[in-house]
Amino acid sequence: MSGAFHTGKYRNVFKEMGYKDTAIQEKLEDAWKQIFYGDEDTRIYYPSSDGGYLLDTGNLDVRTEGMSYGMMIAVQLDKKEEFDRIWKWTKEHMYMQTGENAGYFAWSCNPDGSKQSFGPAPDGEEFFALALFFAAHRWGDGEEPFNYSQQARDLLRTCLHKGEDGNGYSMWNLDNKLIKFVPNCEFTDPSYHLPHFYELFACWAYPEDQVFWKEAAKASREYLTLACHPETGLAPEYAYYDGKPNNEKGYGHFYSDSYRVAGNIGLDYEWFRGSEWERQTANNIQNFFAEIDPEDYRRYTIDGVPFSEKSLHPIGLIATNAMASLAAEGPNAKRMVELFWNTPIRKGDRRYYDNCLYFFSLLALSGNFRIWNPAE
Ligand SMILES: O[C@@H]1[C@@H](O)[C@H](O[C@@H]2CO[C@@H](O[C@@H]3CO[C@@H](O)[C@H](O)[C@H]3O)[C@H](O)[C@H]2O)OC[C@H]1O
């Protein structure tokens, strides 16, 4: 792989901690069975005549976030049927052919396929692109829309070049190289910053876009050092380009979106040894939560002051804090993994977001969240 240092190693943190191979495998298989094919209290995946979708069970809609997460989980586990079903549904119903956002995907649809919004959410696009590259490398390209690598390259081209003809906006700010919250705004969401993805886009995007992606990886790593609080490590949901929380609409605190930052830091450290700052920040986040009973997780200011409001997704938070152990080395690294290991998947209405994060953490901590290179 050119242009990026890749560790090439995938730690099995569960195994390092003494859990048996068979128990780890069972946990993975059980998560797949329950989350994709379980009963109405656990499943979030629904095959349909036009493919298959993941339902945000809390909001009763289908989000590009969930669809792209489902594809990433499926490709990691070699589940081509589910991957193809989700991608087919996505292309058929979520893709926008016209308007200011043509070439992007509608971030929220109804389960019947009708669009709830005609705007995209860039975290979906970046996950789609990497999941598609991995699919191309694992299974080979097929007929459209399963010509995965071309779909990924075209999508990334749209993300950067949209608006050059005067219609619409790019998903990244082309000057500072930071991902936007939505294309037509100039602030960001720290949990959207995935430098470890951009390193790979720098290898596999169209040649004219590769330098941008390399610079974006650097910019996002630097950005996260501004957005995460220096002592707690906590990031707000939305933030300005200088890293300061954007609380214009109440999203300037540590809450649902923010949880992903810890997991992202863990995976960047695992894949690319992003930076020593990542190690320190993973330690800081884990130290902060080590003092708090998971039953009492809340919304926090990024300097750690709790609100009365409880966390909406405590299991997701347990999962991402554990995933940070790929980078952390402090006294709480094992404790967070142990807590996660002993936490069952979430049941009930709000299970979608928690269980997506749960699945990512399970993959990452068992050495199964891998870079799939060409011809592997
Ligand atoms: O205003 C929308 C904006 O809301 C949208 O963002 C997507 C939805 O929110 C994010 O994740 C949610 C975290 O909280 C959980 O309770 C939800 O179930 C999750 O979906 C998600 O990352 C975003 O893609 O983006 C488009 C904007 O117009």
From TrEMBL:
Q: Which domain of life is it from?
A: Bacteria
Q: Sorted alphabetically, which keywords does the UniProt record give? A: Glycosidase, Hydrolase
Q: Which GO terms describe its molecular function?
A: hydrolase activity
What's the source species' lineage? Bacteria, Bacillati, Bacillota, Bacilli, Bacillales
- Name of the protein in question: Glycosyl hydrolase family 8
Matching InterPro entries, A to Z?
A: 6-hairpin_glycosidase_sf, 6hp_glycosidase-like_sf, Glyco_hydro_8
Q: Which family does it belong to?
A: Belongs to the glycosyl hydrolase 8 (cellulase D) family.
SUPFAM superfamilies, alphabetized: Six-hairpin glycosidases
